[in-house]
Amino acid sequence: MRVAIIGAGFGGLCMAIRLELSGIADYTVFEKAGGLGGTWRDNSYPGAGCDIPSHLYSYSFEKYASWTRRYPEQPEILAYLDMCADKYGVRPKIRFDTEVRSARFDGRQWQVTTDDGTERFDAVVSSVGQLNRPAYPEIQGTESFAGVSFHSARWKHEHDLTGRRVAVIGNGSSAAQFIPRIQPLAERLDVFQRTPNWVIPKPDSAFGTATRLALHLVPGLQRVYREWIYRYAEGTLYPALARGWSANLLRKRALGHLHAQVADPALRAKLTPAFPVGCKRVVIDSSFYPALTRPNVEVVTDPIVRITPKGVETSQGLREADTIIYATGFRTTEFLQPIEFTGTGGRTLSDEWKDGAEAYLGISVPHFPNLFLLYGPNTNLGHNSIVFMIECQVRHVMACLPYLAERGPMEVRPEAMAAWRRQLGAAMERMVWGNGCQSWYKTAQGRVTNNWPGPTTLYRRLTALPPLPAYRLTSSA
Ligand code: NAP
């Protein structure tokens, strides 16, 4: 059996490692960039890191006692992924600088086309991520800017910000991480905020020598610590997103954080969101607010009218800038774009998904046999580790592979997809994401296509069920 994996980030590497461990050696990982790591390769801005604790933001089969901090920073995550690729021997199977352009099911196999030509595979596992294509704002005049501009996920490290007038557009998790790092360098920093975010503290610190030694040496300690972080996220953060018992507590925690860190009532008012906590991704950071209170920083809430050669023009006039940083997020609802997937009967994924992406378990799409998605539609989380979800998905794919190897192409039944859609819709009603805010979790029409609306324990159970009842042989379609 030949398997193509698209993307060498957390998901693609996990899939490759599982195949390697189970003796399925004929696989290729197509990676469009020159290095592995996906989002953790692309997002190298100052202060980049993860707001999920290190010991949970890692594979369950490769627990890592050497994390230096409670919350990992980008270089350490990338080093971890590099270590995994080498330890499990998957690096030689990664074809770097090779972008998959299209994949077409020919009735038996997938024809995967890159700039180097077309190859056939029995199964395709797409692991291209949800946060991989930068979104640039549709503001008039962006090309006319005479200074230097870049997106947070395409940081220009060679561009020294010392003594510059810097404009940051956006105030999500990325901006919250790099603003405290660049504020001391910039002569002036204007933060253009369209909507304030809820912010809660990130209790980060370096592990002391004794803790690290204990995590290395005490049998089971790392497992128990990991389990504790997981249970905490599931037991207290998830209910807040499901409008449960902790929603008010989380709101109070965020308001308390704001009051503790921002003394100026006018700035506090600007920074107080008017939507329910969790509707947009909660920012988890302890140094963002203090940076905003520094004398060289201003939070600008006047709407942006256009970008001019000299800077950013708002409804109140021009704010000159030498550098503009777009912290404007990603094109999150355009799943798998721009790769063109063609399934049975000439159906294309972009057509099937014109009203929003959807997949059974977030993994399988009717009429697209032997195609599996990792971190696909409705599998993002606002409260726990995506690595957990990826491992559930990889386990499901591994359970499907023996069937398709023995019996030929298989695809999810449209009835199973319809039932899934109904259950997902019902679960989504409970969640806080639907009303009150616009976010990257949903399409312009308001359909939440990115997030998983249940506890992750439920997702684990569902993905662990024997796959067969939900699938059929493609020849019998
Ligand atoms: P984001 O959360 O989507 O934030 C984009 C920001 O840009 C928002 O403040 C948005 O304002 C603003 N914006 C977009 N278009 C604009 C326009 N035309 N004019 C003015 N403002 C505009 O993006 P992100 O900060 O890169 O984060 C994306 C996700 O990546 C996060 O939610 C998180 O899941 C993940 N992430 C995680 C970590 C971590 O620690 N784990 C760190 C960084 C990122 P509105 O709010 O008004 O739309």
UniProtKB/TrEMBL annotation:
**Which Gene Ontology terms cover its molecular function?**
flavin adenine dinucleotide binding; N,N-dimethylaniline monooxygenase activity; NADP binding
**This protein's record includes keyword Cell inner membrane:** no
Which UniProt keywords are given for this protein, alphabetically ordered?
FAD, Flavoprotein, Oxidoreductase
Q: Which InterPro entries match?
A: FAD-bind_Monooxygenase_sf, FAD/NAD-bd_sf, Flavin_mOase-like
Pfam families xrefs:
FMO-like
Q: Which family does it belong to?
A: Belongs to the FAD-binding monooxygenase family.
**In its UniProt entry, what is this protein called?**
Cation diffusion facilitator CzcD-associated flavoprotein CzcO
